[in-house]
Amino acid sequence: MADEQAVSNYLAKASESLEGAASELANGRFNNCANRCYYACFQAAIAALLAAGIRTRSSRGHFRHPTVHAQFVEQLINRRRRYPSTLRTVLTDTMKLREEADYELNRISEKQAMRAQRRSREFVHTIRKELGHDD
Length: 135
Prior knowledge:
The protein is mainly alpha-helical. It is 72% helix and 0% strand. The chain has 5 helices and no strands. The chain starts with a helix and ends in a 5-residue tail after the last helix.
């Protein structure tokens, strides 16, 4: 089934983004770490939604960030209770940090990057485990 392949592909992308975040953190590139943390979460959320049969693509075939965020929380945390409520704010929190890193004058601190990496790793691993793709 194409959706199974899509789920696997998005989980692989999430893992790659998570590895990139770890590398960026280790090399003191905290802004890049924040960016990769967000995309790891976003890609894992897409995989979770696809696995649950929830379609979030726009008419142009793209995954819209606000839709993915809303559907992940509403459908998979609040309604279906597939994921713990502790993950509720991870997508929005990491997106805000990524936007700060990418677009604002201030730089992301090591502490902020470390926190984002920890939360992103938990987010991705929780989804991988739920979907039977344990590391």
